[in-house]
Specification:
The structure is a homotetramer. Helices cover about 40% and strands about 20% of the residues of chain A. Chain A has about 260 residues and is α/β, with parallel strands linked by helices. The first copy, chain A, has one domain: NAD(P)-binding Rossmann-like Domain (Rossmann fold). At the A-B interface, α4 and α5 of A face α4 and α5 of B. Chains A, B, C, D: This is NAD(P)-binding protein. Chains A, B, C, D: Pfam families: adh_short. Chains A, B, C, D: InterPro entries: NAD(P)-bd_dom_sf (IPR036291), SDR_fam (IPR002347).
């Protein structure tokens, strides 16, 4: 009985963004997909959609992005009975959860700081722990990997700005984690990578407040499916040439 | 009755490191000195030493580097009755507190992550808030400043490494905060600056585990007094040429 | 009569490295391939190999990487009569030429500096001019591009070190060029990208002085074919998510 | 008969910018000053001004910033007979020469590229060689130094932009040189440092095309004297805490 590769993603919002696009793409590529988010309705809707399309997905809602909740969901995933036959091997984990806050510094509250750090950093430590522990149990595959751990970063991961103190503190911290892990676990054939998303992504939410010119011009905004393709590319890199970090931005983005 | 400039520093360890050296130097330059740390004995000893040397210092112990405790100490400082006559004007604030943790990733606990983020980032947000609010009440001085906010950074602020995931996450986050503040408050003539300390500092603690060759060779380790001088230089920069970031390392450091 | 896409690459060494691997890969993908290098024998051998394998390649030897010679080769390429029918559309240009020099600073000669700057920077300006002028004549393709300009960078593009003053000066300069071009021509749907190759590549040359352990361990050195695949990926990115820069290193590389 | 410290600076423009301000400041601090530039009139005027003010300066015009001319000027300086008694010890060298060009890429000529690379990089290699060879003959002074080599950098040293391809290529290259030298010669107690000037400097030239609001507002533009003070500070750093790089910008600069 064969083993099927498993893709775990945390952070799928309402199902129209990067996490969901990646889930759909990896499902098409034959991965079982474990979806983690706080919103159970979105999870179930996306899982249903993927399953209807011939994939195999399951939702794992969590109450919040606390360290404990984030880590323990890996136990739930490991215990899950998939409908198809065969065991699962966690091969790709995508940390796409995050918490943005854009405010002048004096408007930033203690709660804002804590939420940004907990969601963007602390929970990412827990997620990384769950993923790395699972990867270490894997054999090295034909590409020279035990697993790939992907992080969704942002411009705020490399540049603090006038309204991003709390958000940038979290995203810088996440980038530090990703670099530390890349250096420590590359030696064990675990690939850790960080994508700097430098621009707005077309989602249900951004569509609700952006103008038509932006929505309709593919040179101006990121397509979540294109980001997902870059994640797939990173996963498919073989052991001789791994990327830790790349940036992604629309063709016409000013930067 | 004249106003005296006030220097606030958080993080003085046992009184042999950067925070203490800066406190001594600014006291010599005529600043009143408010010392913040968790260890009341160290605080009192250092305050006593400065006062004996003709300076004016007071200790403000805090129970921990929680957001609330860190912010409220500014109220205590504002309420403090200094022995000399005249009111105080907070002109320089140095965030030198920190929490280091060096461990392989899988040994890093939830508590390690939280401690690093709380001390290195959350408390720095509170400290910055206290400082900025005080600075905004100041006139612009002859150098073109309302105040200077100094952050002690580290190599781990710009590079994650195999045993620094939790520490680097905190120090990256602090650097993000400092850059955001520099951009937002430069326009209000508040100078925010970040020093990357890239090497070991000679302190009571480092002396206890380093060898004689290191201790006795001034080309190999940082002197806390030299760091303090660089902080004084940054404070004395006039409005036309402010530094956000500089690095500091011993002459013979390999980097 | 259809138009065939053309791939131009400068810098193919003796045919065992990155430039040659990219030429082979793009030929397989249906591109005509124009090979530029100083060594006519290597060019002809590689062109012959690609043609024998069913591709279509031609060599364009140049006397040196002067500005003039590098730029004028684009005229030669435009004037070339390909054996198959149909006109060519230059769609991908790879600047892979370079000149490395590793010496203590006081051993670096005027000639070393000039050679590094001419080959790594000045010639790259000429190559970029030739490529951009050609791209501007193209329609925007289905991926939203007029063309892709790829630069092979190195660790020395982001870090000067004790024996790399002349090499790093050239590679930093090349990186500056690539970033400037990416920002200026993204708006015209020309994609410019820079790869930081952070490790040794397995080539005929490196095999001649490296030990067996290194040569035989795919975790330790870059495979030129894997770099070529990353270039193909970058070319295939659609307009919504373009990468300017990524790093590539072997799984076990210490960095 | 005592030895007097010598300060060498290349690039003094018309005497109203950074190089000239540094020359004045180091003259006031007791350094003999050797002025290098292409414009003999400016050199003589500045030398005369410094000498009238009680300093000791001499001009060393060079025909152009070729490698040979730049290097040989160190021989001329060594052979110079100063009016006061005592030999000279070259202790501080400032590379402030540069060549800016701001043009859309397709307007950049071969000559523009070569001029930028020659002046910003090649000549800086020659200047560094002259300075390092002189420093190596010095004893280590009380601050732990044989000498300090200062480089004036720019925003274009860390960021390429739409009209800066040629300028940024030069300034990136210069930065690479400075970092390589800092790492190689720190071990010999030679301090190499690089200042990123991030904003406009008030000079005769900038005054001719800027508006009154900019000229008269010290929060908006750099004062060359303030940059000079930062250079003096860097020179005075002791061996335990050397800065390789700092940025300098006006208080209100948007960045």
């Amino acid at each position: 009985m064969s083993t099927r590769p498993l893709f775990v993603v945390a952070g799928i919002g309402n199902g129209s963004g990067t996490g969901a696009a990646a889930a759909r793409l990896f499902a098409q590529k034959g991965y079982r997909v474990a979806l983690i988010a706080r919103n159970a309705d979105s999870l179930n809707r996306l899982a249903g959609e993927i399953n209807s399309a011939g994939g195999e997905a399951a939702g794992f809602p969590i109450s919040d992005y606390s360290y404990g909740a984030t880590l323990s969901v890996f136990d739930n995933i490991a215990a899950h009975k998939w409908s198809s036959a065969g065991s699962s091997s966690l091969r790709v984990a995508l940390w796409n959860a995050g918490s943005g806050v854009w405010k002048p510094f004096l408007d930033v509250t203690e709660k804002d700081v804590e939420t940004s750090l907990q969601t963007n950093v602390t929970a990412a430590f827990a997620f990384s722990r769950g993923a790395v522990l699972a990867f270490k149990q894997n054999d090295i595959d034909e590409r020279g990997k035990r697993g790939t751990l992907l992080f969704t970063g942002a411009t705020a991961a490399i540049r603090g700005n006038v309204t991003t103190s709390a958000f940038a503190a979290g995203k810088f911290g996440l980038r530090a984690l990703s670099q530390s892990l890349a250096k420590e676990f590359g030696k064990e054939n675990i690939h850790v990578t960080h994508a700097i998303i430098d621009g707005g992504i077309l989602t249900d939410r951004s569509s609700s407040y952006r103008d038509e010119a932006w929505i309709n011009n593919p040179d101006l905004r990121l397509d979540a499916n294109s980001i997902a393709k870059s994640y797939l590319y990173l996963v498919e890199q073989d052991r001789s040439a791994w990327t830790w970090e790349l940036d992604l931005r629309p063709a016409h983005e000013k930067w």
